[in-house]
Write the structure tokens for this entry.
Amino acid sequence: MEEGDNSTAANVARAIAAALDWSSPPDARKAAVAYLESVKNGDVRVLANTSLLLVRKDWSSEIRLHGFKMLQHLVRFRWDEFSISERREFANYTINLVVEVVGSHEEWALKSQMAALVAEVVRREGIALWHELLPSIVSLSNKGPTEAELVAMILRWLPEDITVHNEDLEGDRRRILLRGLTESLTEILPLLYSLLEKHFVAALTEHSRQQVDLAKQHAATVTAALNAVNAYAEWAPVPDLAKYGLIHGCGSLLPYNEFRLHACEFFKFISQRKRPVDATGSEFDSAMNMIFQILMNVSRDFLNGSMSNSGSIDENEYEFAESICESMVALGSSNMQCILVDRGMTSQFLQQMLEYYQHYKIALHFQSLLFWLALLREPSSKGKSIAQVSGDNLSVGNLGFGGGPIDKDKKWVSLFITDEVCAAILDVSFRRMLKKNVTSGTATSLEPLELWSDELEGKSDFSQYRSRLLELLKLTASQKPLVAAARVSQRIDTIIKNANHQSMSHQDLAVMESTQLGLEAVVGSIFDGSDESLSSNPEIKFQLHTIFAGLLQQLLCLKWTEPASAVLLGRYLDALGPYLKHYPDSVTGVVNKLFELLTSLPCTIQDPSSNNARHARLQICSSFIRISRAADKSLLPHMKAIADTMGYLQAEGRLLRGEHNLLGEAFLVMASSAGIQQQQEVLAWQLEPLSKVWTPLEWQNTYLSEPFGLTYLFSDVQFMWSIFHAVTFFEKALKRSGSKKSNINLQGSVGPTTNPTYLHPISSHLSWMLPPLLRLLRSIHALWSEPIAQVLPGELKAAKGMSPVEQTSLLGESSLKLPKGNLAAATGDGPSMEMSREGDSKENDIRNWLKGIRDSGYNVIGLSTTIGDTFFRCIEGSSVALALVENVQSMEFRHIRQLIHLVLVPLVKNCPVDLWEAYIINLLHPLLLHCHQALSCSWSSLLNEARAKVPDNIGNLLGSELKVEVMEEKLLRDLTREVCSLLSALASPNLNSGLPSLEQIGPTNRVEASHLKNVESYVSNSLIGFLMLHKGTALPALRISLEVFTWTDGEAVTKIIPFCGAIILLAISSNNQEVREFVAKDLFFAIIQGLALESNAIISADLLGLCREIYVYLSERDPAPRQVLMSLPNITKDDLLGFEDALSKTSSPKEQKQHLRSLLILATGNKLKALAAQKVTNVITNVTARSRTSAPISGPTVEEDGAIGLAAIT
């Protein structure tokens, strides 16, 4: 080492100390970090010598750790800069470093980093180096426990690039590493077993001699060896793991507290392995059978102890039991075929899993729930299509049936799913549908179970957990319908008898509500129409009818008149909707009972105390909708009777407008089962009275003709809400009418519109519905414009601010519930506000009205664009643009986002080609101009001043200023993503069918000039091409597409990629110079800038793909791509020539992307964080004491650091 290296090392050490010293001035820390980066990116030999000096023992631990990380950086990113001899010299020097860090008092983090460095050198230099090192590694492990621990760490790090994804090792390098390590398993696996056995025995021996320090050293070696074994358990052949004793060895460690959690990790990994299809299948089955026996023996001991004396089991035992149960779930879900031939073992295994499911500890029950889901899904997947629940990996098809004929294995499993097993699962599932109430104890004191609570960690959330329970109920009911029907009926009967019918407590209501969900799941599963046993077995069908007819009669006899209990009774009745579909004779009683419940509650709107009753009435009306949907045609014969009852109640003033709308929506659902003609008749009946209120010019001229007209409307409360209900019903009519399978979707086109003869039943009504709505929306938008906004009454100014519900939603909080009068809460659909409620302030009434009209009005327009050409032919594009974007400069971000999402995206996707200019250009030109200016300003403020500047009126917010800042940033990001979604919609393939794909263009970068077209030739078959001819609209869109790459929002970048891809295709296939120059220079550079942001790491592959397309297809036609690359700081001309030479030798897009990736990393000095992110995680990953996942964490952990006690080893 030269003197200069010592000086540099000293400078680097001071810089490290300064960078880590938070008391240092910010400028000093910034300068220190910059200096460290300059060393990392400077001369590679200076970096090597300096780093090797810094890892010596005469430096502090912090500096030595940084030195190891610098060495890892060098090996990972700059190894190729060394000559062959220098690489071997460096490798030998690194191995010699092992001696420097070996010591009983050396910190675990340093030893781990040293081991990672050695493993990295081996991976970079090749497996041949490992074969040379192996004898010395074995020799080192025999010296003592600390040396053996370090060897185990090296062995653990070696397969890192096999078990953790790393793009650098795609292809040959990964295969070579895997092949080399596989060939070395005959030496590695026996060595690991030897380390486990030798040091475990030594730890016990030294502990018995009370040599605590020495026992700790041996125990640390055992732990390190277990971590290494776990690294091989994921990929090494299972028969080899059994052959060399590792399965037996890890099983022997399960009784010992110090090692059992690590040993459980081994079994969890190996239990998920799939049976090979080669000749080693029988050996695999034998190994798995051994694992079944090991885990079941440990499990049996715990379950016996838990049942006999649960009070003696502490939390550590339960934690261990949870790990065992998790391993058994993985084993049973992946390799059940290994024990099916042994009926006794299979029965014992399922019995243990059932006992876990019945266990009062929620963690054990939760693990077993995943197993039963996987087990019951498998036989159901052939006869039924059960909806999957996201959040777990045990989907249909995961259950291991690889050992023989699949149908035979499934039949074997079904033999063990007895009525008793299903009954036990059902009983536990019903009881566990409750959630613990932290403020008032548990939901019911009758449940001797540890119920779900928000304090549980790592178990998703209650809604997901309950969804899994409901799915299990459905699966069980599909297997054993009679058992499920009987159990749910008994459960409801018991609850009804125990409940206080006069005034139900919160406890009773919670139990009733949870059981209603269970009833809904069971009935839906039994009567969903896919179970052939119902039609083929009359006896089963009769017994089911008897059970549910009795239950229905019991429900119809109940006299529950309190609002909350009446709502629950309505929900119990609509849960039986699928049953009514098969037994329509019961419909009359249900309809009469719902009307009885409705009329038993007061409907006055003057009494503030009636809010709960009016909320309950809305919920009961929504039950009609659910029954109409589930019972299908069974309600058709009753439509006239229902209509007569509605008319009678309305004439007596006992049916409010909002309730009438919900019942009208139910009629639309009923009519959808009868065909288009019936829908048209129902729509005419429903819309005729509304048109008499909606179409007259008198109210429009009075309230919508001048800027302050709406202030007069707010004084006419009755008419104000009648307008509200008209708009909300228009929305419902659009959603509910049309072909039953039309798939009306705001994000896509409507199925029936592909049929030119199809006419949507509401089409004829759009001509009178839309003009007043557009005038109304224009007037609402004007309330935010200057100078009108300045002179509005105080209550109207305040009403324009956010409601507490909106604030809570933006903050991601869930503690604040929607108001009880909320229509969305009642129907699960529709606008977010309901009728005016006496007792609420007028400010809240106006706010609710404005939000409801805006939400539903936007939805009406958006849905109207999806039902064919009627919308576009019955109204002028200029009037739509005037209403929607005249005052876009004054709109708040949240409102622009709604406008884009609900109106503009579906309009763009469904607009006829001949009206693109009249609609799309007229709407997008002012919108994109404003959005570009507003987003640029807000993002600049956020990035430079750490606070987004948004125009939104947050309203009154009790809390810290930080909450306001969070909401402002959320508003900014939401609008950014929505604007990018709009641009993505412009690039939809069905709107750009004229653009050729890259496959059509071919892999060559030499596109013949004669094949290039004018942009004008794309105007009728490419919306992107059409847009480029309207520069006023195209320019802000293109500017947004550039700037979004610098806005630190990976989701927005994801959404903009299709737009950029379409622009690139246009540049490749056309001869337009402006588009080509934009893509070749501006877009190419912007994407590279985007790769500098770590927020774009998840989509870095897509961004590289865009860069590749630009360079491969345009670099021969335009000098800009080469100029952009040559402008990068660390590139040379030779680097570029080498890159182009590599490109010319392959036509594989994947390999070309990899070459480009390597070049960009080199050219930017590894400054592209989106590309470096994945690599860094592989460099500094460490195994924790609890788990080892494929998503490694950053930095060394301390969970295995410190003293290791052996008190439990006796």
Summary: The two ends are 52 Å apart (CA to CA). The mean pLDDT is 84. The CA atoms of residues 603 and 654 lie 6 Å apart. The longest helix spans residues 172-208.
